[in-house]
Amino acid sequence: MAELSETESKTGKEILVGKSTAEITKLLTDCGQPAYRGQQVAGWIYRRGAVSFGDMTDLPLALRSELLEKFTLGLPELRHRDAAPDGTVKYLLAFPDGLTVESVYLPYQQRVSVCLSTQVGCPAGCTFCATGQGGFARNLTSAEIVGQLLFMQRESERRISHAVYMGMGEPLFNFENVVASLKVIGSEVGISLRNLTVSTVGVVPGIEALANSDLPVTLALSLHAPDDDLRQQLIPTGRKWNISEIMRACRYYTRQTRRNLTFEYLLIGGVNDSVEQARKLATLLNTWRLPGNVNLIPFNYVETTSGFKRPTPEAIKLFREELEKTGRVATQRMTRGNVIAAACGQLRRKAAEVQQFDIRLEPVGSPAAE
Ligand code: SAH
Ligand code: SF4
């Protein structure tokens, strides 16, 4: 499948979302406009929630039509939304080539977070993950990554303060577009880079490159097993980089950025949730002298992964206590939106099996973006 280029939509119009104020200004001055028009347009896109040039009410009408002829904002279109009573909303968003990804809006008392996808599908093929089991289509452009956030900001009355790159796809397999999107979200949308988290399955060259990129984002490592044998069964990509190589890269990351990591550990009943495995995990992290919390994620049922089941509450408790004995802080990803977020890939799967839609999942008729 041909990839959409970063700057051109299917219509041949140049996409503005994902570009910096300076780049937008250059495009507009090339059209004979004064520089402040570029700042106005960028302000509308990133901070004032425009979904079309028509929304940019302080631009002259003639300029709005000229912009419409030459450019497109390039925001994704809404295909479905699934709202939970606690305020969590999961969106299925479509790009011009018709491919879709999931994005999740997660409101908390003190902050509002969103979960972004970085690829359509994922080539890592993790056996427990709906996305990984569904194959891989293509990388998202940085415009498409930023577009998810802008879309959700537009839908929300509250300001988005945090973003986690934990949706569909492996961010570090799409390094350049991910880094470009982090920069735009930081400098244009105005979310602190410290409030952005990139989650990786352990792509060693990507971890090193991110460490060198001078972006103080948080790195979350999906570890899921304390030894290579088990890890490689769960994560086929694990065969490419073993745990020692990943730990070395993580240590490099903490030293370069002076930031702690988060370790994600998916608990699968009877597979990786024993007290002995908790002890091995603690020893591993302590031996490598890697600071950071362990985030325990109880396995969320995925249809295709026959044989996997959720851990019992008792097993979760014992695993957690064992980690804490070694001084490691272990948090548990609780139900509500986090489970929705953890199970990214499932909404898209549901959408593919139209007749099995969840009753709360309402098809949406008209696209919200231009
Ligand atoms: N590719 C990256 C980021 C996206 S996956 C990574 O793997 O880190 C985001 C998170 O969802 C990962 O921590 C993954 O372990 C978790 N996840 C995937 N399938 C899940 C399932 N069935 N139940 C619970 N969490 C799951
Ligand atoms: Fe890809 Fe992450 Fe799913 Fe593994 S868990 S298949 S890396 S999205």
Compact overview of the structure:
By secondary structure, the protein is of the alpha/beta class. Helices cover 36% and strands 19% of the residues. Strand 12, helix 10 and strand 13 (292-298) form a beta-alpha-beta unit.
Question: What structural keywords apply?
Answer:
about 20% strand, binds S-adenosyl-L-homocysteine, alpha/beta, 11-stranded mixed beta sheet, elongated, about 375 residues, TIM Barrel, disordered C terminus, 13 helices, DNA polymerase, domain 1, 2 domains, binds iron/sulfur cluster
Protein architecture, described:
With 370 residues, the protein is an alpha/beta fold. It folds into 2 domains: 18-72, DNA polymerase, domain 1 (Orthogonal Bundle), CATH 1.10.150.530; 77-369, Aldolase class I (TIM Barrel), CATH 3.20.20. It is 36% helix and 19% strand. It contains 13 helices and 15 strands. An 11-stranded mixed β-sheet has the order 14-13-12-11-10-9-6-5-4-3-15, with helices on both faces. Helix 1 (21-30) crosses helix 2 (35-46), helix 5 packs across helix 6 and helix 7 packs parallel to helix 9. The longest helix is centred in the middle third of the chain and has 15 residues, at 175-189. The chain is elongated, with a radius of gyration of 21 Å. It starts with 13 loop residues before the first strand and ends in a 7-residue tail after the last strand. The structure holds S-adenosyl-L-homocysteine and iron/sulfur cluster.
